[in-house]
């Protein structure tokens, strides 16, 4: 009986060793994948921050472009108004639209 119990203990110890080895292997895999996951997460955060920065730059560019277009439009309106005002001073007939342009430009 003692031999049988001894064999059972040895068998159980072998199973325990195998289970411990598997647990160690899985733990190593867990650590490996956790590190990879952290790297990917850090890369994602970095990309997200870069995207935010690019969106800010894009917003600034759009704002400047709008301002430039507005200035160009105002410049064109001013040029047109000067031309129309010269026509007005010469006594030429102006349309309602022409009068509106003069008004927008501040000539009336």
TrEMBL record:
- Per UniProt, which keywords does this protein have? Coiled coil
> Which Pfam families does the entry mention?
DUF7121
Residues forming coiled coils: 2-29
Q: Does the keyword Coiled coil apply?
A: yes
UniProt name for this protein: Phosphoserine phosphatase
